[in-house]
Amino acid sequence: MKPLKEITAFQIRKRLSEPPVFGHFVDLTRRIIKEPLDLSGLVLCGFDFSGSLFESDVRLDHATCKGISWFRGVHFAAAVDFSSACFFNDARFDKAFFRSVANFRSAEFRGIATFDGCVSEARLDFSDILANGNFSIAGAHLKKRSQLSGAALIGGFWHRDLPTTQFDGLDRCDIFGRT
Prior knowledge:
By secondary structure, the protein is mostly beta strands. It has one helix and 28 strands. The longest helix is centred in the first third of the chain and has 8 residues, at 9-16.
Protein backbone atom coordinates (compact mmCIF):
# COMPACT_ATOMS: atom_id res chain seq x y z
CA MET A 1 0.00 0.00 0.00
CA LYS A 2 1.43 3.37 -0.98
CA PRO A 3 2.04 5.94 1.79
CA LEU A 4 -0.23 8.94 2.36
CA LYS A 5 0.74 12.07 0.49
CA GLU A 6 0.41 15.42 2.29
CA ILE A 7 -1.79 18.12 0.76
CA THR A 8 -2.75 21.54 2.14
CA ALA A 9 -6.24 22.91 2.68
CA PHE A 10 -5.47 25.67 0.15
CA GLN A 11 -4.55 23.12 -2.53
CA ILE A 12 -7.75 21.15 -1.87
CA ARG A 13 -9.92 24.26 -1.97
CA LYS A 14 -8.36 25.32 -5.28
CA ARG A 15 -8.79 21.88 -6.90
CA LEU A 16 -12.38 21.37 -5.72
CA SER A 17 -13.41 24.83 -6.90
CA GLU A 18 -12.90 23.78 -10.53
CA PRO A 19 -16.12 23.81 -12.58
CA PRO A 20 -17.95 20.48 -12.22
CA VAL A 21 -17.81 18.23 -15.29
CA PHE A 22 -20.23 15.30 -15.41
CA GLY A 23 -18.39 11.99 -15.01
CA HIS A 24 -15.12 13.56 -13.82
CA PHE A 25 -13.78 13.92 -10.29
CA VAL A 26 -10.65 15.10 -8.51
CA ASP A 27 -8.56 12.18 -7.23
CA LEU A 28 -7.50 13.02 -3.67
CA THR A 29 -7.14 9.44 -2.47
CA ARG A 30 -4.64 8.48 0.24
CA ARG A 31 -3.86 12.05 1.36
CA ILE A 32 -3.03 13.46 4.76
CA ILE A 33 -4.54 16.82 5.63
CA LYS A 34 -2.98 18.24 8.79
CA GLU A 35 -4.72 21.62 9.00
CA PRO A 36 -8.42 22.48 9.28
CA LEU A 37 -10.31 22.22 6.00
CA ASP A 38 -13.11 24.74 5.52
CA LEU A 39 -15.19 24.35 2.36
CA SER A 40 -18.32 25.89 3.88
CA GLY A 41 -20.82 27.28 1.41
CA LEU A 42 -18.77 26.44 -1.69
CA VAL A 43 -19.91 24.73 -4.88
CA LEU A 44 -17.57 21.78 -5.31
CA CYS A 45 -16.80 19.49 -8.23
CA GLY A 46 -16.71 15.70 -7.77
CA PHE A 47 -13.99 14.29 -5.53
CA ASP A 48 -12.63 11.09 -4.02
CA PHE A 49 -10.83 11.28 -0.65
CA SER A 50 -10.87 7.50 -0.11
CA GLY A 51 -8.18 6.28 2.29
CA SER A 52 -7.27 9.79 3.47
CA LEU A 53 -6.57 11.11 6.97
CA PHE A 54 -8.00 14.42 8.20
CA GLU A 55 -6.11 15.40 11.37
CA SER A 56 -8.12 18.59 12.05
CA ASP A 57 -11.70 19.81 11.75
CA VAL A 58 -13.48 19.45 8.42
CA ARG A 59 -16.29 21.84 7.41
CA LEU A 60 -18.52 21.36 4.39
CA ASP A 61 -21.59 22.93 5.98
CA HIS A 62 -23.86 24.54 3.37
CA ALA A 63 -21.56 23.26 0.60
CA THR A 64 -22.98 21.98 -2.70
CA CYS A 65 -21.21 18.86 -3.94
CA LYS A 66 -21.99 18.55 -7.66
CA GLY A 67 -20.28 15.24 -8.40
CA ILE A 68 -19.37 12.13 -6.44
CA SER A 69 -18.41 12.76 -2.81
CA TRP A 70 -16.38 9.80 -1.67
CA PHE A 71 -14.88 9.48 1.81
CA ARG A 72 -14.50 5.68 1.79
CA GLY A 73 -12.15 4.46 4.50
CA VAL A 74 -11.35 8.02 5.58
CA HIS A 75 -10.13 8.69 9.13
CA PHE A 76 -11.64 11.86 10.62
CA ALA A 77 -9.53 12.60 13.73
CA ALA A 78 -11.49 15.74 14.71
CA ALA A 79 -15.01 17.15 14.37
CA VAL A 80 -16.73 17.18 10.98
CA ASP A 81 -19.60 19.42 9.91
CA PHE A 82 -21.65 18.53 6.83
CA SER A 83 -24.79 20.30 8.11
CA SER A 84 -27.06 21.60 5.35
CA ALA A 85 -24.69 20.29 2.67
CA CYS A 86 -26.25 19.13 -0.59
CA PHE A 87 -24.79 16.04 -2.25
CA PHE A 88 -25.99 15.90 -5.87
CA ASN A 89 -24.55 12.43 -6.42
CA ASP A 90 -23.40 9.51 -4.27
CA ALA A 91 -22.02 10.36 -0.83
CA ARG A 92 -19.89 7.41 0.29
CA PHE A 93 -18.59 7.11 3.83
CA ASP A 94 -18.15 3.31 3.80
CA LYS A 95 -15.69 2.21 6.49
CA ALA A 96 -15.01 5.81 7.52
CA PHE A 97 -13.79 6.39 11.08
CA PHE A 98 -15.23 9.30 13.09
CA ARG A 99 -13.26 10.07 16.27
CA SER A 100 -15.35 13.12 17.18
CA VAL A 101 -18.84 14.47 16.55
CA ALA A 102 -20.06 14.21 12.95
CA ASN A 103 -22.83 16.67 12.10
CA PHE A 104 -24.96 15.92 9.03
CA ARG A 105 -28.01 17.83 10.34
CA SER A 106 -30.30 18.99 7.48
CA ALA A 107 -28.00 17.59 4.77
CA GLU A 108 -29.60 16.58 1.47
CA PHE A 109 -28.46 13.38 -0.22
CA ARG A 110 -29.80 13.26 -3.79
CA GLY A 111 -27.93 10.03 -4.58
CA ILE A 112 -27.14 7.24 -2.14
CA ALA A 113 -25.88 7.97 1.37
CA THR A 114 -23.64 5.06 2.36
CA PHE A 115 -22.10 4.68 5.82
CA ASP A 116 -21.71 0.89 5.69
CA GLY A 117 -19.08 -0.43 8.08
CA CYS A 118 -18.26 3.01 9.48
CA VAL A 119 -16.95 3.30 13.02
CA SER A 120 -17.88 6.22 15.25
CA GLU A 121 -16.57 6.99 18.70
CA ALA A 122 -18.91 9.96 19.03
CA ARG A 123 -22.46 10.87 18.10
CA LEU A 124 -23.50 10.98 14.43
CA ASP A 125 -26.24 13.55 13.90
CA PHE A 126 -28.50 12.80 10.93
CA SER A 127 -31.40 14.95 12.22
CA ASP A 128 -33.63 16.41 9.51
CA ILE A 129 -31.67 14.90 6.60
CA LEU A 130 -33.33 14.17 3.28
CA ALA A 131 -32.03 11.01 1.62
CA ASN A 132 -33.59 10.52 -1.82
CA GLY A 133 -31.58 7.38 -2.55
CA ASN A 134 -31.11 4.70 0.06
CA PHE A 135 -29.59 5.58 3.42
CA SER A 136 -27.36 2.68 4.37
CA ILE A 137 -25.46 2.21 7.62
CA ALA A 138 -25.22 -1.57 7.56
CA GLY A 139 -22.52 -3.19 9.66
CA ALA A 140 -21.56 0.09 11.36
CA HIS A 141 -20.07 0.20 14.85
CA LEU A 142 -21.47 3.14 16.82
CA LYS A 143 -20.13 3.70 20.33
CA LYS A 144 -22.70 6.46 21.00
CA ARG A 145 -26.38 6.60 20.14
CA SER A 146 -26.95 8.57 16.95
CA GLN A 147 -29.75 10.89 15.91
CA LEU A 148 -32.30 10.44 13.09
CA SER A 149 -35.10 12.72 14.34
CA GLY A 150 -36.98 14.45 11.53
CA ALA A 151 -35.11 12.58 8.78
CA ALA A 152 -36.86 11.62 5.53
CA LEU A 153 -35.34 8.44 4.13
CA ILE A 154 -37.08 8.17 0.76
CA GLY A 155 -34.98 5.31 -0.63
CA GLY A 156 -35.19 3.21 2.50
CA PHE A 157 -33.13 2.57 5.62
CA TRP A 158 -30.55 -0.21 5.35
CA HIS A 159 -29.12 -1.15 8.74
CA ARG A 160 -28.17 -4.84 8.64
CA ASP A 161 -26.26 -5.90 11.77
CA LEU A 162 -26.99 -2.57 13.47
CA PRO A 163 -29.93 -2.52 15.90
CA THR A 164 -32.35 0.38 15.51
CA THR A 165 -31.91 0.97 19.25
CA GLN A 166 -28.65 2.74 18.29
CA PHE A 167 -30.72 5.69 17.06
CA ASP A 168 -32.63 8.38 18.90
CA GLY A 169 -35.57 9.95 17.08
CA LEU A 170 -36.36 6.95 14.88
CA ASP A 171 -40.01 7.33 15.89
CA ARG A 172 -39.90 10.87 14.41
CA CYS A 173 -38.26 9.76 11.17
CA ASP A 174 -40.12 9.10 7.89
CA ILE A 175 -38.89 5.96 6.15
CA PHE A 176 -40.08 4.96 2.68
CA GLY A 177 -38.81 2.03 0.70
CA ARG A 178 -36.96 -0.93 2.12
CA THR A 179 -35.91 -1.22 5.76
